[in-house]
Amino acid sequence: MSKSAITITVKLFAAYQEAFGVSELILRIPSGTPVSAVCDRLIAEHPELTQWRDVTRFGINLIFSEPDTELQDGDEVVLIPPVSGG
């Protein structure tokens, strides 16, 4: 069984949005990819985001998800870094 590619939408907020300069990305990734790997891929493209790797929470289709949750075709992923404020 070969792994096929799936398409996901990644919504970017805060530091992620600032780094990429857009509010969302459409990515093609291998089927069975965990959501944490999407975060790793974005950090690989923008190493200044490394500081957020261990504190970013993940949402899939508006539900908070564990980092090892496998993505499905059409999923909407949200990367939520901590928000600073008073």
Automatic annotation (TrEMBL):
GO terms for biological process: Mo-molybdopterin cofactor biosynthetic process. InterPro entries: Beta-grasp_dom_sf, MOCS2A, Mopterin_synth/thiamin_S_b, ThiS/MoaD-like. The keyword Cell inner membrane does not apply. This is Molybdopterin synthase sulfur carrier subunit. Pfam families: ThiS. GO terms for cellular component: molybdopterin adenylyltransferase complex. GO terms for molecular function: nucleotide binding. Belongs to the MoaD family. Signal peptide: none annotated. It comes from the Bacteria. CDD domains: Ubl_MoaD.
